[in-house]
Amino acid sequence: MDKRRAQLLEDFDLLENWEEKYDYLIELGFDLAEMPQVLKTEENLVKGCQSSVWFDIRCENGKINFDADSDSLIVKGIVAIVDYLYNGQSAEDVLKADLSIFEELGLWQHLSSQRGNGLMAMLAHLKKAATDCLSQ
Amino acid sequence: MARDILSARQDFPILDIQVNERPLVYLDNAATTQKPQVVIDTLRDYYTRYNANIHRGNYAIAYEATEAYEKARAKVASYINAEHKHEIIFTRGTTESINLVAYSFGERFVGEGDEIIVTQLEHHSNYVPWKLLCERKKAKFQVVPFDENGDLDLEVYKSLLNEKTRVVAVNHVSNSLGTINPVKEIIQLAHDAGAVVLVDAAQAVQHIEHDVQALDADFYAFSGHKMYGPMGVGVLYGKEKWLDAMPPFLSGGEMISNVTPEKISFNVLPYKFEAGTPNVPGPIGLAAAIDYLQEFDEQELRAYEDTLLNYGIGKLKEIPGLTLYGNPKQRSSILPFNIEGIQHFDLGVLFDARGVAVRTGQHCTQPIMDALKVPGFVRASLALYSNRDDIDALVESIQRAIKMLKGAKKHG
Predict the structure, then answer these.
(1) Which residue in chain A has the smallest CA separation from B397?
(2) Which of B36, B75, B294, B362 could form a disulfide with B11 if both were Cys (CB 3.0 to 4.6 A apart)?
(3) B282 and B185: one domain?
(4) How far is B388 from B10, CA to CA, in rounded Å?
(5) What is the pLDDT along chain B (412 residues), one digit of tens a residue?
C-alpha cells in the first residue's frame, strides 16, 4: 500500500495545474473496473447532495473487496484512488485507512471539504465493512 | 450625477484576486455578493472608532453607535419605502426574518383548518418554516406549481385561495430559475381573499423594484449580504398593524419594558422583535451598501443587468448540449443550466480550476429539482459588477470542461 501511495504522489507531482490534476483524476476514473449495473442498488448508494457513489463491499477471506462507481467523473477518479489503495486489502489494513493521501495529493481542500461528494461516507462504509469482516 | 456602471468593478477589491493562478471570475452572486471598499471601510471604522453596545450606554461612543444603528434603520425604511421606520426589524438574514413571521404571526393568527399557500419556486427557507407551522397548527399546506417556462400557475393559485387562507408566502425572484414573480398581482388576490402575504425578496431587493407600499406587501424579507452589505444582517419589514398584533419571537433583553415576577410587558416596535444585543455593525454596513447602490441610477442598473443577462442567455444557448432551465416571462440575474451527459458537480470543479466560481447542486430548492426531474444544475448569477468578460470566461470554461469530460469518455 505504501508503494502505491508513493506512486500516486509521484504521478500527481508531475501535474502542473488544477486542470491537469482533474484531467488525471478523470482518466483514473475511466480505468476503474466497471461496476455491474445490478450492484447499483439503493442499498449501495452513498448519496451526497452533489453526486452519488455506489459501493458494493464484500468480505472475502478476511479481505475487503468492492465494486464502486459514481455519476460524477471527478468523484469517480477519487473512487479509483480509494480502489487502488484499498481494494483487496486485508480488513486490518482497511481499518487503518485514512484520508491523508488526499491531503498529500492536494485534493483535500478542493474536494473533500465540500458537502456531499461522499468521500468521508465512503471511508466510513469501508471501515464498517472491515469491522464486520473481522468480527465474523 | 449617477455613476457609470462599468466603473463599479474597481470598488470591489476581491475582484482583483487570483484563484488557481487565474483572475477570479465571480458568478455566484445569488449566494452572496462581494463587498465594495466603502462597506469594508465602514465596518473597520465602526470597530476602530465607536464599537459599543447600543440603546443603553450613556457615553459618547455608545451614543454614536446607537445613532448610526438607528440611522441605518431609517435608511433601510427609505430604500424599501416603508411608511414607518419602526416597521424595519433587523435580523440575521432572510431565513430568520421568515421564521420570525412563521412563528410569531403563525402563533397568533394560524389555527387548525386554516390554510397556507407557498409556491413550488420557493427556496427551502420560505417553504420549510411554513410546512412546519402547518404541522404544528394542523393547518393545510398548499403549493402553487410552476409551468414549463418556470412561471407560476396563477390559475391554480386563484383556485387555492379561499376564506381559510391565512398566509401566502412567495419569492419575488426565484433563486434557482430567476423567474420574476408577479407579486403585486399575487398580493392583490391574497388581500381580496383576506390573506396576508410575505414576500421573500432576497434575490429581488438588489435587482428590481423594492417598494413595499407599491407592492402592498404585508411582510418583506431580505438579506444584507446579497446586496453588497455585510454577512449576518437581514431585514424583516412588516406592516405596523401586524407587527403590533404579533407576540415576540425571541425574548430577553431589549425587547421588554417592564419585568416583575408577576408580569412582563414588552417594548414598543421595533425593539419588541430585537431581543438581546443586536449585530450593531451589520445594519451600519448595510446602510453603507445602500448608499453605495444609490450612487448608480436604478433604471440604468436594471437595464445594464438585463442586457448582460440576455447576453449570457444568448451565449449559453449557442453551446451544443446545453439546457438552460426556464423561460419565464421575466427573469432576473440568474442562469441555470446543465450540459447533456455531464454531472453538474464536475462542471463546478472544472470551472474552479479556471478561476470561475459558480454554484452547483440543488440550490436549496428540492421541489424545483423534482419538478424538472434533475438531480441539480449549475447556476451562474450576476451582480452590478459582472460584465461580458465574466460571461465569456464562463463560456470558455464550459467548452473546456466539455472537451475534458467528453474527451475522456472517448479515450476511455
Answers:
(1) A19
(2) B36
(3) yes
(4) 16
(5) 799 999 999 999 999 999 988 999 999 999 999 999 999 999 999 999 999 999 988 999 999 999 999 999 999 999 999 999 999 999 999 999 999 999 999 999 999 999 999 999 999 999 999 999 999 999 999 999 999 999 999 999 999 999 999 999 999 999 999 999 999 999 999 999 999 999 999 999 999 999 999 999 999 999 999 999 999 999 999 999 999 999 999 998 888 888 898 998 999 999 999 999 999 999 999 999 999 999 999 999 999 999 999 999 999 999 999 999 999 999 999 999 999 999 999 999 999 999 999 999 888 889 999 999 998 999 999 999 999 999 999 999 999 999 998 876 555 4
**Strands A63-70 and A52-60, how do they pair?**
antiparallel
Which CATH number covers residue B44?
A: 3.40.640.10
Q: Which domain holds residue A62?
A: 2-36+45-135
Does any CB of chain B come closer than 8 Å to the CB of residue A33?
A: no
Residues B216 and B328 in one domain: no
Q: Which of B20, B342, B375 sits opposite A18 (nearest CB)?
A: B20
Residues of A in contact with B360 (CB under 8 A): 50
Cα–Cα distance, B391 to B399 (Å, whole number): 12
**Are B372 and B244 members of one domain?**
no
Query: What's the structural domain count of chain B?
Result: 2
- Same domain for B57 and B21? no
Query: B375: which chain A residues are within 8 Å (Cβ-Cβ)?
Result: 52, 71
- Cβ distance of B20 and A72 shorter than 8 Å: no
Q: b/e string for A108-135 if b means 16 or more Cβ within 10 A?
A: eebbbebebbbbeebbebbbebbeebee
Q: Is B354 on the interface with A (CB under 8 A)?
A: yes
Given B236, B258, B293, the domain boundary residue is B293
ipTM value greater than 0.90: no
Distance from CA of A53 to the nearest CA of B (A): 12
Contact B376 A49 (CB under 8 A): yes
Residue A30 contacts B, CB cutoff 8 Å: yes
